Amino acid sequence: MEIDSCHHLDSQFQRVFTFLKKEDLLKNTMVIITGDHGEEFMEKGRWGHNSEFTEEQMRVPLVLRIPNIEPTRVNRMTSHLDIAPRSSSVTD
Hints:
The protein has two helices and four strands; from the N terminus they run H-E-E-E-H-E. It is α+β, with helices and mostly antiparallel strands. It has a domain at 2-65. It has a two-stranded antiparallel sheet with strand order 1-4. A two-stranded antiparallel sheet has the order 2-3. It starts with a helix and ends in a 27-residue tail after the last strand.
């Protein structure tokens, strides 16, 4: 079931990227992919989240795609505190 969920989510990401490319928006669009929690897949004997404070359950995925910035992997502790939604309406 988890694999099906991941496959479905990947297909939705593909739809977004396909649209951004088609509309020529990708070159000027920052894309942020994150979650509200980590997930354990039996690495420490548990499945899911909210059952233990294991690294797999506490670490939250964060992927940034920023135009004109070369891809890199960050292996140090980071924070989501600076990633916040806009305070005003999307339509303004």
